[in-house]
Amino acid sequence: MGALLPLSRESVSRTMLPGTVGAPAAARAFVRTTLTGPGAPALLGPRPLGDRLTEDAVLLVSELVTNAVLHAGTEIEVVCRLQTTPPGVVVEVSDLHPASAVYGGQDTRRRGRGLQLMGALAESWGVTYHRTRKAVWFRLDAAREGSGADALSVDAVGSEVRFAKALAPAAPPRHREGSGGWVDRGGPSFLAEASDLLAGQLDENMVAALAGQLLVPRLADWCAVWLSTEGQRLRLCRVWHSDERRNDALRLALESHPPPTGLDPSGTPWPWPEPTDGRGAGGAALAFPLLAQGRSHGVLLLGRAGVTQLSEGAARLSGDVARRVAQAVATARRYTRQATISRALQRRQLPTSLAHIPGVDTAIVYEPHGEEQTVGGDFYDLFPMGGRRWCFLLGDVCGSDPEAMSVTGLARHLVRLLAREGHGVESVLSRLNQALVEEGAEAVAVGGEQARPRFLSLLYGELEPDPATGAAHCTLASAGHPLPLRLTAEGSVVTTGSNQMLLGIDESAEFHADSFDLALGETLLCVTDGVTERRSGNRQLDDDDGLADILRGCVGLSAKAVAERVRRAAHDFGPEPIDDDLAVLVLEAVPMRPVPVRMAPL
């Protein structure tokens, strides 16, 4: 980095990332932690880096690392330098392919927007070719934070509103609407960029915010977006004026006169709201319905000051944008509905809370693998049975798709029902096995051979704490599940239970349970194969009793600390992200808290 600015004082952080799809997310987390961690205030003193600079740095490093993954495919080094003279941050992304090109310019749409964004957001940037590597760097100046015309407001809608303005092609001042030149020459390119930006949004409020940024000031001096509600009423979602000081007055004027339904898709002339123009010069406004998939999703209203009407080309281009906004809103709403349904269904697959067991400290770690999922193929439960007995389970369904999630719900609720009807450990496994075999046979009968049955591994047990000894009597059985490990107070680790057949394979399978006492101070560790089969190259975490070695180092730790150490060890074992669900259940026998005795009043 000798080619960068000479510094009198700086703090340097660096990390190496694999050239995989997980690298951009890791780079974003690294830069955000560096810029918002305790080191930044310690170095910069009373001039901390603002939220906007942090978000810009995170966006730019994400684009550069993505470009490196796509076009170099080597390991990537990310260096983040906090500087005091002048205050700011320099981020450098290096790959080990010095011959690969850095894409930008006319090829931006096909290759990405990293260099285009750097040109819009960075104070300075450059590319340095070394003999064995190539480095792309940028500098963001903290002194520019929130200053000048470049400082656009960032609210809860998100920083992407500013990036829309940086990315969308701006109309040169001499080609403003009226001459029609820019609409004819730059309109198609502008429309393509607008489509690209809107298509990537899955939040309707963000779509409305982007619409305002795209249209103002290129096609209009101000813009407003109404979105329809469930009762087909309209709410004014977003107002944007080229003079931001007039936003509030414009909103007040528009809120009192919402547009009607049944507007002409080609644009309906709209009365000019006076607060939009302090000079009273007036102008022209057009309202476009947001129609997509056979229904109305709202209204887009835009206005241009100083003209009696918008040109035919500008109106046509505005209508094209309105159709794309409508499609983006419809897509975002469909995604939101599906996500809401999915979350509601997933919430029923796992317990809302874990039972408290007197004399036993418990902890659970649960990380589903699927993106945007709260439930995967792994599941757990811990519930009371009455009579000082509690039941626990940890299971894993073959697969991580919605079908696997449906089996987790069936298994967990059926186990609870059987246990509360008085069935012991062996009986619960036998009856659950029969239910899964029947379910699989019905699926094949209905869906044919492609509807393969779902197999299930399950660790199920009962706990009965003994107040006299402080131990907890445990009865458990493992059906094709990784066997639990017991850590003694002296630090030795023993495997508990015996391997038995998976559930759902053979209706006639028989299961037996093992019993032991979990002595005071002892810990029982239960995991799914997302932990034991965590890979690093050709090795797995549990090769050569790797999990036992991890547990052996947990003597004296609480149940929560043990669970966290195992989770961290699984993540740190290999450079690649974990590609399976991960679940850890820890039970530790601890002294019972004495129950306070209430004295009767005299």
Helix-strand layout with pairing:
Elements: E1 10-17, H1 23-36, H2 39-44, H3 51-71, E2 76-84, E3 87-95, H4 108-111, H5 114-121, E4 124-129, E5 134-141, H6 160-167, H7 181-199, H8 204-215, E6 222-228, E7 234-241, H9 247-255, E8 268-270, E9 283-292, E10 295-305, H10 312-347, E11 360-367, E12 378-384, E13 390-397, H11 402-420, H12 425-447, E14 456-465, E15 472-479, E16 485-487, E17 493-495, E18 514-518, E19 523-527, H13 529-532, E20 535-536, E21 539-540, H14 546-552, H15 559-573, E22 582-589
Antiparallel strand pairs: 1-2, 2-3, 3-5, 4-5, 6-7, 6-10, 8-9, 9-10, 11-22, 12-13, 13-14, 14-15, 15-18, 16-17, 16-19, 19-22, 20-21
Helix pairs in contact: 1-3, 3-5, 6-8, 7-10, 8-10, 11-12
Please explain how this structure is put together.
Helices cover 34% and strands 25% of the residues. Strand 9 (283-292) and strand 10 (295-305) form a beta hairpin. Helix 7 (181-199) packs parallel to helix 10 (312-347) and helix 8 runs antiparallel to helix 10. It is of the alpha+beta class. The strands form 5 sheets. It has a 5-stranded antiparallel β-sheet with strand order 1-2-3-5-4. The chain has a 5-stranded antiparallel β-sheet with strand order 7-6-10-9-8. It has a 5-stranded antiparallel β-sheet with strand order 11-22-19-16-17. The chain has helices spanning 23-36, 39-44, 51-71, 108-111, 114-121, 160-167, 181-199, 204-215, 247-255, 312-347, 402-420, 425-447, 529-532, 546-552, 559-573, and strands at residues 10-17, 76-84, 87-95, 124-129, 134-141, 222-228, 234-241, 268-270, 283-292, 295-305, 360-367, 378-384, 390-397, 456-465, 472-479, 485-487, 493-495, 514-518, 523-527, 535-536, 539-540, 582-589. It is built from 15 helices and 22 strands.
